[in-house]
Structures are given as C-alpha cells and as structure tokens.
Amino acid sequence: MGKKLSETKKITKKKGGKKLSKAPSQARSDIRSCLKEIVDPFSEKDKDSVWEFFDSHCAYCNQPIERTSRLGHMDHLVPKKDGLNHISNRVLSCNVCNGDEKRDSSWRDFILTKDGTAEDHAVRIKKIEDWVSSKTPNKEEIERIKSRRAHAEKLAKDVISVLDEKIEELKKLK
Ligand SMILES: [Zn+2]
For 4, which of 14, 33, 80, 158 is 20 to 30 Å away at the CA? Predict the structure, then answer.
C-alpha cells in the first residue's frame, strides 16, 4: 500500500535531487482522496481509538511502536482503492508492514508472512477481527457511505478533467 506513494514521491524528486512541484498524477490522487475523505472521514478521535485498541503495537507483526516516533500508520485493511476510510477498515501498522507490498494478498495472508508462531498469528488475526466487528456500522450506514463515496468519485472526475485542461493550457505557454 505504501509503495505506490513512495514511487510517486520519487517521481517528484528526480532530476538530480532537485525537488520538483507535485506531479499531475499525485494531484489527481490527492483530489480523489480529499473528496472521498469528506464523505467518509477518519477523525483524530478515531486515530486515538486505533492506538488504544492495538495498544501501540503493529496489528500485523506485533512490534511495539512509539506514538511520538511517527512510525505508526493508520493502515487500510482493505486497500484504499476499494476499502473505506472508515475506522472499521483501519488498523495500526508499523513502518515496515505499511511499506510492504500486500495489495494482492488479504491482510490474513499477510500476517502469516510475518514473524511468530501459528498461535501468534491466530491471536493477531482474532484481534483484528474483533476490531472490525466492533466498529463495522450497520448495512444501511455502509450503503450510505458507499453511495456518498461514489458521488465524491464522480465529482473528482469532473474536477480532474478541469485540472487536466488547465495543465494543457499551461503547457502551451512554453
Ligand atoms: Zn509491523
């Protein structure tokens, strides 16, 4: 999940290390995320709940994480592209697990690739399942969030097409 972001960062920093302005692809992705987060938010209070429930340990590998270290991430269990921003889809993840490529495998399979015995893995999986079931809203609410997200996605397309037009206009000035 984190890989895509770091690739984008690299793109904006190439050319002899001279920092360039944000690439259009990053801007498009920011527009989509920003509009979706308005209708499917994740608050500071939600973040506190995640830290508390996972007791400052990575949900996947169980490494302790110092909150002040900035190494803790609010990872999406189901990747951002398909999954909600909602607290029920967020867990605490260390820097390493957050950066690992796990897009094609489920979070359950991902945990099995981490250090620990089968029993350790089962404990972590159960902990996440308990979290998800305690935070998942009712069906109507999920449908409401999904429909708002679809609306935000449509609006993002409109905004992005205007952005692309303006980028083309600016390019012609060269
Ligand atoms: Zn981890």
Answer: 158
Reduced to 3 states, what is the DSSP secondary structure of residue 120?
Answer: helix
56 Cα: distance to centroid of ligand 1 (angstroms): 11
- Give pLDDT tens digits for 128-156: 999 999 999 999 999 999 999 999 999 99
Q: How far is the CA of 123 from the centre of ligand 1 (A)?
A: 15
The pTM for the full model equals 0.81
Which residues lie near ion ligand 1 (Cβ < 5 Å)?
58, 60-61, 94, 97
Please report, for the chain, the start and end positions of each structural domain, with discontinuous segments joined by +. Answer: 39-136, 138-174
Considering the domain delimited by 39-136, tell me its CATH architecture: 3-Layer(aba) Sandwich (3.40)
Q: How many CB atoms lie within 10 A of CB 161?
A: 10
